[in-house]
Amino acid sequence: MDKTYQHWTLEVTSHIAYLTLNRPSKKNRIDTTTLTELGDLTEYLSSDPDVWVVVVQGAGDCFSAGVDVSLIGNMVGQEEAAYRQNLRHAQSFLDAFEALEKPTIAALHGAVIGGGMILALCCDFRIAAENVVFELPEVKRSIGVIMGTQRITNAIGIAHTKDMVMLGTPVAAERALQIGLVNKLVPLDQLATQAKAFAEQFLELPPLAVGLCKKIINEGQFLERAGQDLEIEAQLGLLGTEDFREAITSFFEKRKPVYKGK
C-alpha cells in the first residue's frame, strides 16, 4: 500500500496486516482524523485478498488514552441535528471496522481508555500485556459512553459494564482476564510475539470461511431464528470457492490443506 496516514501505519507481512495507531506523543488519542483514516484503512483491508488477519496495536507507551479532548470539546454548544450527525458519522467508522469480514486482534498495553477501549472491543480478540489498565472515565466528565456501550456489555456482561460505565472503575490486567475483557495476558516484552503467534493460527484456515463465521456470529446474535437461516444462505457463497473444494479434497486425501483465499 503506497498511501500514508497521519495517525496510522500499516504493514502487511505473510497475510498478516499490522495496523498501528501512531500518535505516541498524544498517547494515541483518537480524534476525527484518526477515525476518518480508520474508515479508509478498513476499505483497503477489506478489499485486499492478501490480508487474511489484522493485528491492531498502539505505538509508544500505551494502546490509547481515549478520545482527544478536541473531539469532546466540539460537542459543546452544537445544535441537536449537527450533534447527532457528527456522532453517527464518527461511530460509522468503528462500525465498519468491527464488521470487517476478517479476524482482528487487538494487542494491548498500558492505558486502554474510553474510545481506545471501544476500538479494542471492535476487535474479535484481545491479547494484553500485564501492564494494561482499562478505564471508561466518561461519567466523571458528565458524558456517557458514545462509541458503543453495547460492545462492552457483549464482552463482559451487564454487571461488570455498569461497574465500569456508571462508576468509572478502572480494570487492571488480572481482573480484565477474569471478566472476559481480554482473551490472554502476556508479559509486555512478549506482546508482539504472542500477537503474531495468535494471528498465525488463522493462516492455517480458509480465510473466506473464517470471515463468513465472523459475519454469522456478529449479525446472527440479533436475529434469533433468522440467524440459522443466515447460516444456510451464507454457506451458499462458499460452496463454489477453491478453498471449499480444497478442504473437502484434502480431507479425503488425508493431507494438510493449502488455502488460497479464493
Describe the structure in your own words.
By secondary structure, this protein is of the alpha/beta class. It folds into two domains: 8-203, 2-enoyl-CoA Hydratase, Chain A, domain 1; 205-253, no CATH class. Helices cover 46% and strands 15% of the residues. The protein has ten helices and nine strands. It has helices at residues 32-47, 69-73, 80-98, 115-121, 149-167, 173-178, 191-200, 207-220, 225-236, 242-253, and strands spanning 8-13, 16-21, 53-58, 104-108, 111-113, 125-129, 133-135, 171-172, 184-186. The strands form two sheets. A six-stranded mixed beta sheet has the order 1-2-3-4-6-9, with helices on both faces. Strands 5-7-8 form a three-stranded mixed beta sheet. The longest helix has 19 residues, at 80-98.
Query: In order across it, which strands form the biggest sheet?
Result: 1-2-3-4-6-9
Roughly how many Å is the radius of gyration? 19 Å
Helix content: 40-55%
Structural class: alpha/beta
Instruction: Look at the structure and name the CATH superfamily of the largest domain.
Output: 2-enoyl-CoA Hydratase, Chain A, domain 1
